[in-house]
Write a structure and sequence with these properties.
Blueprint (H helix, E strand, L loop, with lengths): L4 H12 L21 H9 L12 H13 L11 H10 L13 H11 L4 E5 L5 E5 L5 E2 L11 H16 L2 H15 L3 E5 L13 E6 L5 E9 L2 E3 L8 E3 H13 L1 E4 L4 E4 L2 E6 L5 H10 L2 H4 L2 E4 L1 H10 L22
Parallel strand pairs: 6-11, 7-8, 11-12
Antiparallel strand pairs: 1-2, 2-3, 4-5, 5-6, 9-10
Helix pairs in contact: 1-3, 1-5, 6-11
């Protein structure tokens, strides 16, 4: 990834605290970023666990060189900047560093977005009070901590409960369209195509197929078999549940039938199959599936249950579906009389 030089130098000005004036009687624009001398610029980057040390040259140009080097690091496609660059933006916009405004930092955010918008990105504060980058064209969010097993913040725990309530009432199509498609786009998959349930004859066990680009620019193709309820190993399937034997058979069908990728203009086989459950995959079902797969297929079939969906969706900071948001009354806060 590469930003125009004038934009990285403008970002360097913000990090150095150059724009604006500290003098309230000067008539100029107030400062919304703290001034950083050579020592504090070095400290800024050391706080991000990097080894950059200011060499005494022009500060904002030196910072621009550092940002150029960060943007050149490996990353997941043109819509997701490298993790270290996302961390720089978050640290720069720390609410505790607010100057001449409140902790929401609307003026500082406006100055930052004036620069980022020229490169097709937008910065915003999420519920966890961290500042994230969003690609304007695709709405993809750059993240800097995606470990789904880390402790959740209070705001993330609240969002998780709201998402659980949504999963309890949503349909299988809503699970696919409102939850899984945005989630896998955010995780870096491309060409995500939903088969839906209108034409089962053409589905061949695939509810979704998608593509992942390796760092070597080779492609891996994935198919998803999605069930809303619990997956169990019972011989008699209960209402709202699905048998793992049936799902396993559909996954094998998925791997056996090719798909057409219009971007490369050829038919390809699915490399891996995901079994996705909106409910729980019971321990018995997991054991049955593990015993049913031989060594050659074991790496081709993977499974994700509700807990995985919840944790991944929350830590990647995706907005909740409209149906998961608390409803608001239709009347105004104050009566007209």
């Amino acid at each position: 990834m590469k930003f125009k030089r004038r934009n990285t130098e403008a970002l360097g000005d913000l990090i150095c605290g150059n724009p604006g004036s500290d003098d309230p009687h000067s008539g100029g624009t107030p400062k919304y970023f703290p001034y950083r001398s050579s020592m504090y610029i070095t400290e800024f980057f050391q706080d991000l666990d990097t080894e950059y040390t200011h060499d005494g040259s022009t500060r904002h140009r030196w910072v621009a060189d550092v940002l150029d080097a960060m943007l050149a690091e490996p990353h997941e496609g043109p819509t997701r900047p490298p993790e270290i660059f996302c961390r720089v933006i978050d640290y720069l916009m720390a609410p505790n560093d607010a100057m001449n405004e409140g902790p929401g930092r609307p003026n500082a955010l406006g100055q930052l977005n004036e620069i980022l918008n020229r490169e097709g990105f937008e910065a915003f504060y999420a519920d966890d009070q961290h500042c994230y980058l969003r690609h304007i064209g695709t709405n993809t969010i750059g993240v800097f901590q995606t470990n789904p097993h880390r402790p959740l913040t209070e705001a993330e725990t609240k969002r998780r409960k709201e998402l659980i309530a949504y999963l309890e009432k949503c349909s299988e199509d809503e699970l696919i369209e409102e939850i899984l498609l945005p989630l896998f786009r955010q995780l870096g998959f491309h060409r995500i195509t939903s088969a839906g349930h209108r034409d089962k004859a053409l589905e061949y066990g695939k509810d979704i197929w998608m593509r992942y680009t390796l760092p070597t620019q080779h492609y891996l193709y994935f198919g998803l078999q999605v069930k809303k309820g619990k997956l169990d190993a019972s011989g008699v399937t209960k209402h709202g549940h699905a048998g793992i034997g049936e799902i396993h058979h559909q996954a094998l069908m998925m791997l056996a039938h090719d798909i057409f990728d219009p971007e490369v203009n050829r038919r390809v086989l699915v490399d891996h199959a995901f079994i996705v459950a909106g409910g729980e995959i019971t321990k018995a079902a997991r054991n049955w599936l593990g015993n049913a797969l031989d060594a050659a297929k074991r790496s081709q079939i993977m499974f994700i249950d509700r807990e995985d969906i919840l944790n991944l969706y929350v830590v990647t900071n995706l907005p909740l579906p409209a149906g998961a948001l608390p409803s608001t009354p239709d009347w105004p806060d104050e009566p007209p009389f």
